[in-house]
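User: For my dataset I need records formatted as: sequence, then structure tokens, nothing else. Please produce one.
Assistant:
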Amino acid sequence: MDRKNLDQIITESLAIEAEDAKEAGKLGYMARALVQATMPHKATTEKQFIRRNGTFELSITALSRDGLPFGSIPRLLLSWMTTEAVYTRSPVLELGPTLSAFMAELGLGRRGGTRGDITRFRNQATRLFSSAIYCRYTEKDRDQGKGFNLVNNFNLWWTPKKPDQYPLWKSSVTLGTDFFNEIIERPVPVDMLALRALKRSPMALDIYFWLTYRMSYLSKDTVIPWPLLQMQFGADYGEGAEGLRNFRKKFLARLADVKIIYEKVKVFPVEKGLLLKPSPPHVAKRPVPMLPGSRKGVKGGGCEAAIAALLPSSDISLGLETFEKAKKVAPRLDVYALEGEWRMWIARTGKMPDNPDGAFIGFCRMKYKQGGGN
């Protein structure tokens, strides 16, 4: 790494230390499945990409002619999608009023042209939205697998040539049912400022995601062999001894970048692999809960919202099937807005339901009978 890039990472890491990751906009999440194994680092002509992590195998398949997502942009976008889904508890995500505004939220530049950030972002976004994932665990006595589409549908109304122009309709993406349930049930907490500091390298982002997740449950010293690390992080470096040497050199360089940001992580290269010692995760495993609904609204939600965010109601997780049932008992009503009202009611009364899913459906039915459907 040249001195200029090193100085930039150090400067950004100091900025991260000065901020609390739990403040609005700083605490983020990443999909757990894509922390255990990752997307391609570079462009590939293949339509399927496979990564392995011990008994876990993840394959990403391109469902359109655009090809597979690769590089830092889909990783940043995927983290944003996971974060937004966790905070809003909604599979329908709005992608900002303009292309320029949304890219700024991800910490990306807004240069136009064939090779500019705007063109690359739109290309990677459509690649990511048009991908399917298959996860598989293989052990001696068990074989288990699960497949899902990342996105059910998406609508991008942005104009790359006019990134600041407000479109007639809002751009949005609707997450696949299984993927939505996966990311809201078991997300990995991350620091969004760390992602911005490491965004120049997809491998650095992968290492950061993996380490903060691994340290959330590591209980004893563990050595991960170099060949296994290459299977997980370095499919682009070729096979054999030379490929392993090239991977190790690149991995250690990017690990050094991550350790500037994640200072308390205890990881050391040894002859056979990477030694991991129990360390605190970069972001607490159970962060301060936030009020579900639009997280942009939480920031100025007032005292009532702040109190509600600290109560157990914000720990309640509703399944996507619950929202589908709620739509049937309360047609023409916004069930996601009703969810916010329901959680606020729990916060005010202090009555925690034994069956949250059933209680929420009952709340929606009551609101509809009270005249909401007229």
